[in-house]
Structure formats: C-alpha cells, structure tokens
Amino acid sequence: MRSLFLFLPAVLLSACAGVLPGGEQPVRELASGSYSQQAEPRFEFVTTQAEWAPLWDRTSRGPIPEVDFSRESVLAVFMGQRPTGGHAIRVEQVVREGQRLTVEVLLQAPGPDCMTTQALTQPYHLVAVPAGATRAEFVTRDVTVRCGGE
pTM of the full predicted structure? Predict the structure, then answer.
C-alpha cells in the first residue's frame, strides 16, 4: 500500500509537467494534406519554435498552429512527390521508451483499379506529441488501397 502512495504522486507530477511515462503517447493533429512543398520523402522531429516556423512554411499558407514547445514536440512526415492523387501518409501511433519515440507511419498508395486525380501530389501529416523525448525513430508500413473489382 505504501508503494502505491509513492507511485501515484510521481505519475501525477509527470502528467502535470506535460511528460508522460513510456508507452503509447497521445497525438494531436496539426495539419495534413496532399499538397506540400516537400518533393522528397522526409521524416522530422521538431523540438523548438525556431525549427517549427520553417517546417510550417513548407506545408501550408494558413496561420501557423500554436505549439508550446515546453509541453509538446512536433512530428512531421512527408511522402514526397507522387504522380497522382490517392496517396496518403499518416502518423498512426507513437510509443515512448525512455528518451526515444518510435513513430509508426502508414504509407498508402492507390491500387491499379482506383480512380485518382491526375495531378502531382506531396502528401504530409504533422502532429504534436508530449515533450521530453530527445530522438525519434520512424517505422513505415506500406498499404495499397483496393478499389473496384480487385
């Protein structure tokens, strides 16, 4: 019983500080879309405002979302340029182990029978996660969407 009383304040204190213990991390979506200015595939882990503003400039012309870097970090995944629509990239899950984040990223492509726009696209997804990690490892999973009679 005594160990429970010691453990509970530590968990509450870490939650108040914006840093969660290991395990799956909550994800707050900042932006996603099909048209960025990032032609090459790229995965980024951003921990400062100085890194955030230039990153945002590559993704959108809208107002920059507020990120309090004392509480959050940003994960940005860019699929790179694709020849058609129907492609997407998404941060599916983030797991923290000590100072490292493992970021599971879904790369989605249209199947051969899918109708797509005939335009160049550059899919991206940006999310905020609790601060505290010092590095991120991105792990990808490819999925082809089935359409029509496949």
Answer: 0.83
